[in-house]
Amino acid sequence: MLSWLNLNIDKRMKRVLVMLAMLISSIAVYAQIETPVTWSYSSKNTKGDEAVLILTAKIDGGWHMYSQFIADGGPVPTSFKFTPSKDYELVGKVDEKTPAHKGFDQTFQMNIAYFEGKAVFEQKIRLKVPSAKISGKLEYMVCNDQQCLPPEEVEFTISATGTPKTADATVAPAVTDPKTAQATTKVDSTSTAAHATTVDTAANDTVSKSGVTPITTHENGGPTEIKSASTWGIFIEGFLFGFVALLMPCIFPMIPLTVSFFTKRSPSRAAGIRKAIIFGLAIIGIYVIFGLGITIALGEDALNQLASNAIANLIFFVVLVVFAASFFGAFEITLPSSWATKADEKADKGGILGIFFMALALALASFSCTGPLIGNLLVEAARKGQYLGPAMGMLGFSTSLAIPFTLFAIFPSWLQNLPKSGGWLNSVKVTLGFIELAFALKFLSNVDLAYHWGILDREVFLVLWIVIFTMLGFYLLGKLKFSHDSDLHYVSVPRLFLSLTSFAFAIYMIPGLWGAPLKSISAFAPPMGTQDFDLSVLTVGGGSNNNNQASAHTAKKYAGIFHAPHGIDAFFDYEEGLAYAKKVGKPVMVDFTGHSCVNCRKMEANVWSNPDVLQRLKGDYVLISLYVDDRTELPESEQYVSKTTGKKITTVGKKWSDLQASTYNTNSQPYYVLIDHAGKALVQPQAYNPDIQNYVRFLDSGKQAFENQKLTMK
């Protein structure tokens, strides 16, 4: 009997110990500052007074760190700043020795390059003294499948020595500031923190890895190549552009003339077909060489930076507007006539070389029609940042151009079925002009968002598109006429169908002026956050914003910089929002977020928009949204040194990041904390979780805890 009792006590003790261990481990998971990257430093002397600084990042499993080469509008890239010194000078830029994974990200509409496991960076220097200590600061950002951490700044000091005229390379151990050492901590990426607040890093939360198209890598660890599907997508676009070019007045009439030249001036039908095939291959070769020239001239890094660089987008906008004006007949974009003349003279020599120059003469002479199409295609390839994009685009474009010349030479009887040249060819040009003008606005929108101009918000963009496609519909019906258009005596069936499509598309966009999502063009239109008037906020959860109506009449701090979605009347300063919550007697939801936090946007779009959630956010809570990645400078009087990190807090984002880390011991976003008027958490905070019912329970439990607290205090 006694042994049985001892056995049961032993079992119970084991259960208690197991439960206690689980509790302790869960607390450790929910209350920690995640530091998944460890940096180490070294140097080596290469020759004479030259040395190489080696900066190595060891990245925990499941996390990835971003490359240096991320264009504007994307996640925060890794960057390095070296303190200027008379003891050394930099030679070139920091080189990424570890090949980066690459993929096209649908959210940012650009290529994203990132590292996993390990990343090695090297910087060449030229020493002016036998030995020197090189100090500086690096910044990096990491994400996993569930969350992203704010950008982290790390100071470093590296010793380097120079041994002039010595061939042997020596490795010098790095001398680093112990204060900057980074500890590696394993974390559960699906967990949420128990207490939340910020780190001293201006964070730009970014694309989670799951949002990046995976890229295949070589098994031997060699360079990573871009996924072929995206490259072939540019090829298909080029092929379609080439088909449109065939319908232009500079090329379409040339098809029967060129085919007749080969078939009638050749000694046999086989010889004519052979010449037509060579002619087609020459067209492909000319355009592909042109595309390769663009690729080599710019290089991969430049193409990646062009993808979303604000200045580049402004240039693209101007170029497309100029091309549209050319299609409307304002002027013709032509190459020097002497180029076409010389190519035509070479074509008279005959043989394969003569056929090649014939193809070159066609390419040069038709540039007034194909130039805008080629320019638009190259802009699209640059926007996607694909290294072989220009060449693949030109391959598709030229293949589409070459096929008809070859096929009609093989089957000359098909020429009888071709429609006759006429005014419809110019109508094709004008129609393309309207479409290019519409696409040009997308690039202007990118610039407007990057610089916060606020001149092309969603309503203005949609109004311009509605007007453009309405005018296109009237043009196709013959109600608008340009200088090069011939008289339209009747409306053909294709014109009627195209005009109906254009009018229908314009009408489809009208509800977007009042907040309709317009999912089919969401990739082109500015984000919903730029919408000045959103009728959906009156119908989805509307009428429940009465708790915060009074706050709308007060001037809020940072209200000119930040905006809450779905018409929620939010605060963007912690102290100000907390003071208002005390005034109205409501609990507070602190939303640690970021401008580029993809998961934050997903929660706002998919969870906050739910009527049950939105009603609670508007009616039951005072929302305080704190952007941990904002770069707005704090006034000198508000700047301070963080007690948590010892670093100076100089920006709005760093202030809220420091608040999150010091108060809640976490640094990931999104992070939602329900607090009372004393700043105490009411319930367990939550991170990214797209389960709507879970979020409703989260909000309800916080409200209930707040009500219970009020009853206890009475």
TrEMBL record:
Gene3D superfamilies: Glutaredoxin, Thiol:disulfide interchange protein DsbD, N-terminal domain. It comes from the Bacteria. It holds the Pfam family DsbD_TM. The chain crosses the membrane at residues 232-255, 276-298, 310-331, 352-375, 387-411, 423-440, 460-477, 497-516. It is a multi-pass membrane protein. GO terms for molecular function: protein-disulfide reductase activity. One of its GO terms (biological process) is cytochrome complex assembly. GO terms for cellular component: membrane. Keywords: Cytochrome c-type biogenesis, Membrane, Transmembrane, Transmembrane helix. The keyword rRNA processing does not apply. Residues 47-157 form the Thiol:disulfide interchange protein DsbD N-terminal domain. This is Thiol:disulfide interchange protein. It is found in: Membrane.
